Structure prediction request, 541 residues.
Amino acid sequence: MKSFSLKLGLLCLVLGASSFRALALDGAVVIANSSVAADSLSADALKDIYTAKTKYWDGGQAIIIAVLPDKTDAALQQASGMEASAFKTFWQRLAFSGRGSEPKKADDATALVALVASTKGAIAIVPADAVLTGVKKIEIK
Amino acid sequence: MTTKHSAHKLALSLTAAIMAAGGAQAYEVPLTSISSNMPPVDFHGFVSQGLLASSQYNYLTPNTKDVSTEFFEAGLNASMNPFPHTRITAQAFTYDIGDVGKYDLVLDYASVEYTFNDAFGVRAGRIRRPEGIYNDIQDVDLARTSILLPQGVYDARWRDFYVAIDGADLFGTISLAKAGSLSYDVYGGYINPSMDGGVAQLLRNQLPSFIALNSLDSDPEFGGQLWWNTPINGLRLGVAGGGVLPFNFTTTIQTPGGPIHPDNRSDVIFQHYSAEYLWKAWTFQAEYLTYSLYPYAAGQSATHIDSWYGSAAYRFNKWFELGGYYTEYYGDMDHRDNSLTFQKDLALSLRFDPKPWWVFKVEGHYIRGTGLLDDNADNPPAQQNSDGWFMLAVKTTFSF
Prediction:
């Protein structure tokens, strides 16, 4: 009985830790279009966006995810909980079943920042050294 | 036949067009020429062409023993968010697998979706029906490792019966805090089985020659899908259930006293259990489906069917993935040792992604039993046995 209580306690500790995690993206930051009202997001809220559980910003504007394939894969995995290939497959499933739109893709950091700057509701993970022009940086708490 | 060949040429032309476009990107068309306030429309599409070859039976196509290329799918969809919380989307689709599909162009889905919040939304129109891991994407080759999904659970010929309904779907995700979250769908509507579809083919195959299949009804279907997104990252567990109440088709029996139209109604009830775990570069999946048919006509007994599979896939790098599954299907749960009604399949799949917009796959199957052939004309029952047989599948998909 004592052993069971100990295991249960450990399980709660692990589950609790996972739901209050802080997120540090490897060499990357989160940016959004200037139309987005939010200045910060929790790690869980960011994950909900990247796993399609949250599809709209407060106010109803559609969230448009933009990605930089190959160059921010580690940070994307930290944000979404999925490897890059699984992330791509996940969104293809949504797109072709009528439940979502695939993330928009950019070829380099400059193009990604420009894409986010010109797309209402857009959000993206960009390399930390990218020049952020016309976009807002989102703090991840 | 000429029409079918013309359709195939059109499909191949579409393939060439997509290849020429070389599109890793979706196409976005601004509607500013219509109105400066109109949001852009996103377009996505795919074209898949496959090949099937079998060592012993004409499975899935009438010519599989001689190598068949009657294995084609293409879809083109568009979506937009015209208002806050609102999304409109539609997809045109065409396919051919053996005698099923025949390149008929269909409106695959067309729906309006309003999301009140993360926990509650509604979509209505023609919608893809969520069931298990793959039902609403079973014909999207690029969204999986294998070419053929486990056919007892996701029969490639039955998409007209399984995939979409005309109706509505309530959906959402409810946070369970430390326990993860629950994603749900509850739907109701009408199915639209085609006389060129797999169910019609199955019925024609089963009916005695003196009974003619006249039509398939658009029948009401209700159901739901629940996913528990567990606190363990990448692990989700699902349960689905529902039914077609009733499934009906009309037949004619010619008798000396005139034609007779028997009562063919049956309630179809299904349960579907799923588990999926994404861990690092691995994908593990397992599902169990069971469904029963309860005929209305007096004297007819119920039929109980089930199928399951377990699969694993590993992504080595950007361009190569290896996967495999083992699946069993029992067309009569009361007689699990009858090779004419069971089918067991061990599959190994190689997936190559040479470009983000190009997928190429090769797959081998070792199969025992003939329970899913559903084509006695091309596979006389007297020649079917319990010996193992092989099948090769090759498929390539272009998408944007």
Notes: Residues 2-19 of chain A form the longest helix (18 residues). The beta strands of chain A are 28-33, 40-41, 64-67, 104-105, 122-127, 135-140. Residues 22-140 of chain A form a domain with the D-Maltodextrin-Binding Protein; domain 2 fold (CATH 3.40.190.10). The mean pLDDT of chain A is 87.
